[in-house]
Amino acid sequence: MASNQLVILAIAAFLLPTIAMATDYVVGDDSGWTTNFDYKGWAKGKVFHVGDKLVFKYPVGKHNVFKVNQTAFTDCIIPPANEALTTGNDEIVLAGTGGKWYICGFATHCATGGQKLAISVVESAPEPAPSSAVRGIIFAGYEVLVAAIIAVVAVAV
């Protein structure tokens, strides 16, 4: 029983950095989700990974968010209203790789206001090299923890 718990703990410790490395992107940064904003320019240069999160911030009742396919994105085809995200602080975790498309379904916000976002999502990022002394200490401590857990598991089995 104890060895099963240690194996689960070791697996969790191995996966934790991948989860912790996810990035939250506020779509449009300080401008948020709005009309007449260059979302193509905003996304340019960003690398979106599986596990990252998009956060759409906007005034409730003024905008919404629809996840759509490429055709609906290109032609600004609005899905049924019950598919809209409408909280004004909508969070979408990027769960798979490939193209992802989002539009606003209010009036002509997509078609004439340019309120649409297309991104490409890639596999989860590998563990980055430490970029500062503090980050290096944190990762070194993590590596020691994982090594200790693996050693305990090996002894228990």
UniProtKB/TrEMBL annotation:
Q: Which PANTHER family match?
A: BLUE COPPER PROTEIN (PTHR33021), PHYTOCYANIN DOMAIN-CONTAINING PROTEIN (PTHR33021:SF533)
Give the source species.
Ziziphus jujuba var. spinosa
Task: List GO molecular-function terms, semicolon-separated.
Answer: electron transfer activity; metal ion binding
Instruction: Please spell out the taxonomic lineage of the organism that makes this protein.
Output: Eukaryota, Viridiplantae, Streptophyta, Embryophyta, Tracheophyta
Q: Which GO terms describe its cellular component?
A: plasma membrane
Where does the secretion signal sit in this chain? 1-22
Q: Which Pfam families match?
A: Cu_bind_like
Please name the InterPro entries in this protein's record: Cupredoxin (IPR008972), Phytocyanin-like (IPR039391), Phytocyanin_dom (IPR003245)
Q: Name one GO biological process term.
A: response to symbiotic fungus
The record gives the membrane topology as: Single-pass type I membrane protein
Which part of the chain is the Phytocyanin domain?
23-123
Q: Which SUPFAM superfamilies match?
A: Cupredoxins
Q: What is this protein called?
A: Phytocyanin domain-containing protein
Q: Which UniProt keywords apply?
A: Copper, Disulfide bond, Electron transport, Glycoprotein, Membrane, Metal-binding, Signal, Transmembrane, Transmembrane helix, Transport
Membrane-spanning regions, if any? 136-156
- Reading the lineage from the top rank, the first entry is Eukaryota
Where does this one sit in the cell? Answer: Membrane
